[in-house]
Structure formats: C-alpha cells, structure tokens
Amino acid sequence: MTDEITTYDIAAIRAQFPALAAGTAHFDGPGGTQTPLPVIEAITNALAQPLSNRGDGTPGERNADTIVTEARQAMADLLGADPSGIVFGRSATQLAYDFSRTLAKTWSPGDEVVVTRLDHDSNIRPWIQAAAQVGATVRWADFDPATGELTPDDISAVLSDRTRLVAVTAASNLIGTRPAIAEISRLVHRAGALLYVDGVHYTAHTLVDIDQLGADFFACSPYKFLGPHLGVLAGRPELLETLQPDKLLPSTNAVPERFELGTLPYELLAGTRAAVDFLAGLGPNTDTAAGRRERLVSALAAIEEHEDTLRAQIEKGLSAFEQITIRSQAAERTPTLLLTIDGHSTTDAYRHLAERGIHAPSGSFYALEASRRLGLGDTGGLRVGLAPYNDAEDVERLLAGLSDFLRP
C-alpha cells in the first residue's frame, strides 16, 4: 500500500456526506456526486449574508464580488488555468451551445468541424447544429468498439486544412475511455484548428492541467466533483478576447464576464469554491502553508489511487459472473464500468439493486453515439461509477446484489 492510500481516511471522508446516512451505496457518481457538509454550509452561508449585484459600495455588493473572485481562482487552481479565463454557466451543455454559436460566427461554408462517436451528446449536437447554421461540414472521428479506444490516428484521419474546430471528450462518461488529449491537441493545432475538450467526466477523477492537455477550451461541471449544479469553461483569456458572443447591450464586454449571461448564481459559486477546497483537503499534503494547487495535486493522486483500487476490486468480483460483460476496456480509463448481462435486462438489474439500497443506473446516459457504436442501441447498459466517498463495503454490496440478481 502506498502512502497516499494509508492517509486516505475513507471513514472520515464519508462522515462529511450527510446523504450517505440514508444507507445507499452510490455508484451513480458519473451522473452527479453527493454533497459534503462544507459545500452545503458554503451555499447556506452565502445566502445568509447580504447579497446584491457585484460592486464595491455596499456589503451585499462586496460579498457578491468576493464570491465570484474566489470561485474563479478556485476553479483556476483545479484546472491549472488562468482565473481571467474561467467562465461560469448553468451547465456544460449550455456552455457548449453558447460557444458553438459564438465560434460558428467565424466559420464559412466548406469549413469543417470534427466530432467523435465517443462523446456525450452535449459535445456533439451543439457543434452539428451550429455547423448546419453556417453551411460548415461535420466530420466524424470513430472509436474501436472492441477496445473502447479513440486514438490520435482516429482524429488525424478526419483533419484537413479546412478543419476549424475539433470537439472531443477527455473521458467517456459511458465507458471511461481517456483519449490521449495532449497528442490529439498537437495534431489539431498543426492543422490550424481549435480544440474544445469536454472534461466533465475527466475532472472528477484526475488532475487537470489544461496547458499540458493543450485544450483551447475545457468544460466541466462542479456537481460531478462534489459541488453544486453549475457549468464551468476554462479558456485562454487572449483567445476569449477574440470572440464576440451575443449579449445584452448594457452588459459588460470584459472577459470573462462577456460570456456570462445575466446575474451569476452567487450561492452556487460559493459552493464551487468550497468543493475545490474540500477536494484539496483529501490528500496527504495537509500543509496549510502550501498553495491550493499544490494540495490538489496531492489530493487528486490519492483520490485516483483510491478509486482505481476499488475498480480493481469490482473487476475481480465481476470476473466470477459469466453472464456479465464489461464494455469498458480502454488502457487508460476512469473508474467507470459499463456492464451488459446476457439474458437479462440491465434495467431489471438496476431496479433489483435499487431495492437493496444500491444505486447503479442503467441507460446510455446521453452518450447515444457511443452506445450505438457499441451495438447497444439507445438502451446502453448498467453503469457502475466510483466517487471519492465509495468504500470496499459498497463494492461488496454491489457484487452481492448482482450475484443475487443472477441466482437461478
């Protein structure tokens, strides 16, 4: 056992999540995680204090401004980004639509946009629809359904000198595949295109460094990593300066605010900052003098190792069930498994587990193209996803529940 695991106090971590007291074993993290007390308290405290539109003249104005500034810095620390390039929105889907419309203003008929069969539909449909509005061509990058791999060669095969943007996931929310984004980025930029990365599932499980990944735009959702329901996009400020979104005439033209439509949800931003701080406290580096980014590096390594250990436990247990096929096979992947069960509906398996206090949902989870490419149609399979608060007992309950479901 490594130092990270020995210092990862899962019992103490679980005690911070009031929802776990209900007794459910949650394997639904890819759809949204449970919320720790510090995040709940931060949201409550923000609402309990004076709040107004941002400014510096009254306590309410100053509180709002402080919340926004701190949330931008927290997300910058989490993503390895510039706080001046952090854009908040209602969801990652909304941000993809907003940025697809804005970027499409720079496209012409004959320009090309690349999407992939691996992605969540929120990183496919907005780009297809925006391309259609301006007469741009959509090209599809495929993945290998046998291995779940989407390779740089798959992207390279559909690049041309007319490519303007490539939209690709950093991790599949359906089968966990983690494409080689840094290498893909080099190919995309060599072709003179921009790279929009869906990091919603990725950010929950590993350290993000958008410069290292080479992402021009990187989107994520705090509610996938213990925070409130919100969307966040990180981009380079100098790139954002070149884009002109539709906005209200009196709204500021400053970056990043020009991309944020209407008044921000201050209480959710306070919760987002608290979620990042909570994550930073989960690693072996507890030195309060260390910077938040430094502590996040340590914490995300510990979380990743903890989750991968549990994933191995699940995979070992599942190997005893001949009827179960694990569709998540990529060499690099998140602790997210998609299962199909010979002779059984995974919807029935989901309901069986739910009756026993185990939440492992069934479906295609908006990754329709990936589910269809796997030969699963729109039905998908049973998704088992891990989060920082899962423990070995959760895993044993899951395996016992599946064993009971498969009993003749």
From TrEMBL:
Residue stretches making up the Aminotransferase class V domain: 27-398
Pfam families documented for this protein: Aminotran_5
Matches recorded under InterPro entries: Aminotrans_V_dom, Cys_dSase-rel, PyrdxlP-dep_Trfase, PyrdxlP-dep_Trfase_major, PyrdxlP-dep_Trfase_small
Transmembrane segments: none
Domain of life: Bacteria
Family matches, as NCBIfam families: am_tr_V_VC1184 (TIGR01976)
Name of protein: Cysteine desulfurase-like protein
